[in-house]
Structure to design on (294 residues):
């Protein structure tokens, strides 16, 4: 099952994707795609619905982030062996954890805004895990029982803020629009092997990242289990799990995003995203003029 949120920013409604790829409106049955909706019994009830009985959402309707009201947005750093190699970093002995601000989450095709003063905004295609039930001190063998589904995450990163300004990585990871999620939340039954999914990212049509979840250092089971020993994971929490090689800071010379760039990215079985990069001043001018910003 593929779950989706559609409509204007801040007023998204729930939906599901039918067999033809059309979005069907679930708002007559559930309020939203959030933590409470992700319980196993609720998902089981949704699976029993014949999509043809639901209203069809007009084609071209804006897609919001596939999970709403995210309480905790957790990220894993340097989690692909081939990405660690391109940055010259040692393979970590344990997962590297940091947080992305939940306020950075946007829809999969919304604009990405360059932060004020940014010179090193970078791209990262990532697999995100969405938690479906409360997890605490979970064994790795049972960890995927706590997962409601998976989605594409673009872990946009400002490298100067992240690496050159002292303190933690968080300050370069949570700027507004730095967390596009979606297009949809895919339940585990639709994925044959989450540890063997192809990944890609293009900038202006040029392939930058090509990878696979099979090169993860710590797999999804290990990540959920590990995190559950340091924090209480709640339904609707999002964990983005690291990126394969091809990021801008790993190039020689380094290359970063600029206003007008178009980024497209995707993961096998999980769909695709497309974002236009917008300068901070242009974005604030739109806001002041009351124009749409996504």
């Amino acid at each position: 099952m593929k779950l989706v949120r559609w409509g204007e920013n801040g007023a998204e409604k729930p939906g599901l994707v039918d067999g033809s790829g059309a979005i069907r409106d679930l708002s007559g049955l559930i309020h939203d795609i959030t933590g409470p909706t992700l319980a196993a019994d609720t998902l089981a009830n949704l699976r029993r619905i014949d999509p043809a009985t639901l209203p069809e959402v007009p084609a071209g309707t804006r897609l919001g982030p596939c999970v709403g009201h995210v309480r905790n947005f957790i990220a894993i750093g340097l989690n692909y062996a081939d990405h660690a190699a391109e940055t010259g970093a040692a393979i970590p002995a344990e997962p590297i954890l940091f947080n992305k601000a939940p306020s950075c989450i946007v829809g999969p095709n919304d604009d990405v805004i360059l932060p004020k003063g940014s010179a090193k905004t970078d791209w990262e295609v990532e697999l995100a895990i969405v938690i479906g039930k409360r997890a605490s001190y979970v064994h790795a063998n049972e960890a995927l029982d706590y997962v409601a589904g998976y989605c594409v995450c673009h872990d946009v990163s400002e490298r100067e803020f992240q690496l050159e300004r002292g303190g933690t990585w968080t300050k370069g990871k949570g700027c507004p629009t730095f967390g596009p999620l979606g297009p949809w939340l895919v339940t585990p039954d639709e994925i044959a092997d989450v540890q063997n999914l192809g990944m890609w990212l293009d900038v202006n049509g040029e392939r930058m990242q090509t990878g696979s979840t099979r090169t993860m250092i710590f797999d999804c089971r290990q990540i959920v289990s590990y995190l559950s020993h340091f924090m209480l994971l709640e339904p609707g929490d999002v964990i983005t799990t690291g990126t394969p090689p091809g990021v801008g800071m790993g190039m020689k010379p380094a290359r970063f995003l600029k206003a007008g760039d178009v980024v497209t990215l995707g993961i096998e079985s999980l769909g695709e995203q497309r974002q236009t990069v917008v300068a901070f001043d242009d974005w604030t001018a739109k806001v002041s003029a009351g124009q749409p910003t996504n």
